[in-house]
Amino acid sequence: MTRGRFITLEGGEGAGKSVQRDRLVAALRAVGIGVVATREPGGSPSAEVVRDVLLAHGLAWQPLSEALLHAAARAQHLVETIRPALADGHWVVSDRFNDSTRAYQGAGQGVPAETLDQLDRMVVGDSQPDLTLILDVPAEVGLARAQGRGQGSDRYEAMDLSFHERLRASYRAIAKAEPERCVLIDATGDLEAVATAVRAAVQTRLGVAL
Ligand code: T5A
């Protein structure tokens, strides 16, 4: 059995990750590829419980505690969902993964990069994404979209603009540092324009005709 491919979608609040994940999954399925659509935090039964702990109680977690909770959820997500799906030959498309911890807990909240790198080596190890699509929009555009949608992670949406600008800068720095894994997608266009750019990146990087 050929191992499947692992794609992650990343970006700040309201960048359009969920919408684009669903469109990409539909495009892959339309050409006969078996796909597991997933998300973080969450994506497996126990990781969804950790998601609830993180997001549903209005708690102000300490940055390191939050990084550890995301790491615990990710460890479960990998064991329960991602690795078995890839081993079965399915592709996995995840709305957020480990770059979210680098951006939010690292650049956003000040957890040292070495600490997060150490956690990543322990939790993710060799199971790094084959391709990461970073949806890039100015912070105020993403926030306006997220607020327009009227649900989601209010805690981060309520942070000041400089927090969201740090997230964007962090994602752009990740894309620059790891060009073989990452593609920066201009996500300021309409849904269809961004979906086209996403499909083009997958086609070019992973050699599938979409
Ligand atoms: N988190 C997560 C961490 O701090 N550390 C971690 O390690 C991880 C994994 C998760 C929160 O957890 C944090 C980050 C998050 O704050 P969540 O509820 O899952 O929270 O929400 P998010 O992942 O943040 O989702 P967002 O709220 O940012 O939204 P998306 O998925 O980027 O955007 P989407 O697709 O829902 O679109 C938002 C709205 O914009 C419209 C959509 O229709 C929708 O209404 N839209 C567009 N409108 C115009 N043009 C476009 N191109 C559009 N694209 C989307």
UniProtKB/TrEMBL annotation:
<dbReference type="Pfam" id="PF02223">
    <property type="entry name" value="Thymidylate_kin"/>
</dbReference>
<keyword id="KW-0067">ATP-binding</keyword>
<feature type="binding site">
    <location>
        <begin position="11"/>
        <end position="18"/>
    </location>
    <ligand>
        <name>ATP</name>
    </ligand>
</feature>
<dbReference type="GO" id="GO:0006235">
    <property type="term" value="P:dTTP biosynthetic process"/>
</dbReference>
<dbReference type="GO" id="GO:0006227">
    <property type="term" value="P:dUDP biosynthetic process"/>
</dbReference>
<keyword id="KW-0547">Nucleotide-binding</keyword>
<dbReference type="InterPro" id="IPR027417">
    <property type="entry name" value="P-loop_NTPase"/>
</dbReference>
<dbReference type="InterPro" id="IPR039430">
    <property type="entry name" value="Thymidylate_kin-like_dom"/>
</dbReference>
<dbReference type="GO" id="GO:0006233">
    <property type="term" value="P:dTDP biosynthetic process"/>
</dbReference>
<keyword id="KW-0808">Transferase</keyword>
<keyword id="KW-0545">Nucleotide biosynthesis</keyword>
<dbReference type="GO" id="GO:0004798">
    <property type="term" value="F:dTMP kinase activity"/>
</dbReference>
<comment type="function">
    <text>Phosphorylation of dTMP to form dTDP in both de novo and salvage pathways of dTTP synthesis.</text>
</comment>
<comment type="similarity">
    <text>Belongs to the thymidylate kinase family.</text>
</comment>
<dbReference type="GO" id="GO:0005829">
    <property type="term" value="C:cytosol"/>
</dbReference>
<dbReference type="InterPro" id="IPR018094">
    <property type="entry name" value="Thymidylate_kinase"/>
</dbReference>
<dbReference type="GO" id="GO:0005524">
    <property type="term" value="F:ATP binding"/>
</dbReference>
<keyword id="KW-0418">Kinase</keyword>
<dbReference type="InterPro" id="IPR018095">
    <property type="entry name" value="Thymidylate_kin_CS"/>
</dbReference>
<feature type="domain" description="Thymidylate kinase-like">
    <location>
        <begin position="9"/>
        <end position="196"/>
    </location>
</feature>
<protein>
    <recommendedName>
        <fullName>Thymidylate kinase</fullName>
        <ecNumber>2.7.4.9</ecNumber>
    </recommendedName>
</protein>
